[in-house]
Specification:
binds adenosine-5'-triphosphate; 11 helices; ATP binding; ABC_transporter-like_CS; Oligopeptide/dipeptide ABC transporter ATP-binding protein; four-stranded antiparallel β-sheet; alpha/beta; ATP-binding; binds magnesium ion
Length: 337
């Protein structure tokens, strides 16, 4: 690992037109607002948050699938956010992606050999025999073998399909793999196998990951840093252990509390104690103040007036919450809740 950022996202905005309004005049809303993230070479950044918080919007902007409406995404010497056309081959080969649904992301009519060697065919001068040899190597990296080359995606389980998708993503020895909920569609034991596989390959190959998940507990072991999103904002960021053990933002605390308990009675008690309000719709949130204030047990009057800046947190990272302000302005947390 080096200190130079591989990917540096600064003040990133992503806007969409509100889909719930039909016809003309639908207003635009921010799916991502002012996001700042850094990924260093060989590092894993876990990006977590509930559904609709804007995680895929960040991923898709990095991949060039969705345009940024503001800010920059520096990758090496280029600003990806400023690129209006498809990324040039030199960039595309260095950033790869693995998506959530292993059933729809692999072309059903292709053999595993064709899927895994496709990036080699497009981006390298390798001949067919060389590509096949490389495909065998790649399958070994994901604990599959040569005999799988001639099969089709439907002959594999969800976990195996995700292994094939990972093999294909590794083919060009990328610097960064964007993994958008790569294990969310899998059962728990398969989730752990895939996470372990990603961890091992990263250690060997020195790849960086942007790893998106709902569940902080699932990704904190493999992540060097964690960023937490809520309604388009990165509300907390920091070293993985610190965020997991000592979350600073009230939303991160609630997210960790929401990790399922094995005992349903304990879970009911905890829910009752916390009274977590239902999730909010990004398209309906006023764009001033803290996005979490309506659900926050510690909200103060000033939370409605200003977006809290990113305050440094003891142990590393930042959290955007006035509870961390050196001066609380004479307010008592919770009085506006
Ligand atoms: N193409 C689009 N057009 C309009 N609105 C969109 C579009 N894509 C996403 N959105 C909206 O933007 C917000 C953020 O969506 P995004 O998919 O980035 O969230 P997410 O954190 O990845 O959620 P999930 O965990 O469900 O995948 C949501 O309110 C979503 O409905
Ligand atoms: Mg998503």
């Amino acid at each position: 690992m080096t200190d130079k950022p591989l990917l540096e996202i600064t003040d990133l905005d992503v806007t969409y037109r509100d889909r719930s309004l039909l016809g003309f005049g639908g207003r635009t809303f921010h799916a991502v607002k002012g996001a700042n993230l850094v990924i260093r070479a060989g590092e894993t950044l876990g990006l977590v948050g509930e559904s609709g918080s804007g995680k895929s919007s960040i991923a898709n902007t990095v991949l060039g699938l969705v345009p940024a409406s503001g800010g920059s995404i520096r990758f090496g010497d280029v600003d990806l956010a400023a690129m209006k056309t498809r990324y040039p081959p030199a960039v595309r080969s260095r950033i790869q992606a693995v998506f959530q649904d292993p059933y729809s992301s692999l072309n059903a009519s292709m053999t595993v050999e064709a899927i895994v060697t496709e990036p080699l065919r497009v981006h390298t001068a390798m001949n067919r025999a060389e590509r096949r040899d490389r495909a065998v190597e790649l399958l070994k990296l994901v604990s599959l073998s040569e005999e799988h080359l001639t099969r089709h995606p439907h002959q594999f389980s969800g976990g195996q399909r995700q292994r094939i998708a990972i093999a294909s993503a590794l083919a060009l020895q990328p610097k960064l793999i964007v993994l958008d909920e790569p294990v969310s569609a899998l059962d728990v034991s398969t989730q752990n196998q895939i996470i372990n596989l990603l961890y091992e390959r990263r250690e060997e190959l020195g790849i960086a990951y942007l790893l998106i998940a709902h569940d902080l507990a699932l990704v904190h072991h493999i992540s060097d840093r964690i960023a937490v999103m809520y309604l388009g904002h990165i509300v907390e960021e920091g070293p993985s252990d610190r965020v997991y053990r000592a979350p600073a933002h009230p939303y991160t605390k609630a997210l960790l509390d929401a990790v399922p308990l094995l005992d349903p009675a304990a879970q009911r008690r905890r829910r009752a104690a916390r009274k977590i309000a239902p999730a909010q719709d990004a398209t309906r949130v006023a764009e001033t103040g803290c996005p979490y204030r309506n659900r926050c047990p510690s909200a103060m009057a000033r939370c409605a007036q200003h977006m809290p800046p990113a305050y440094p947190v003891e142990g590393g990272g930042t959290a955007s919450c006035f509870l961390l302000a050196p001066d609380t302005g004479g307010e008592t947390p919770g009085e506006a809740a």
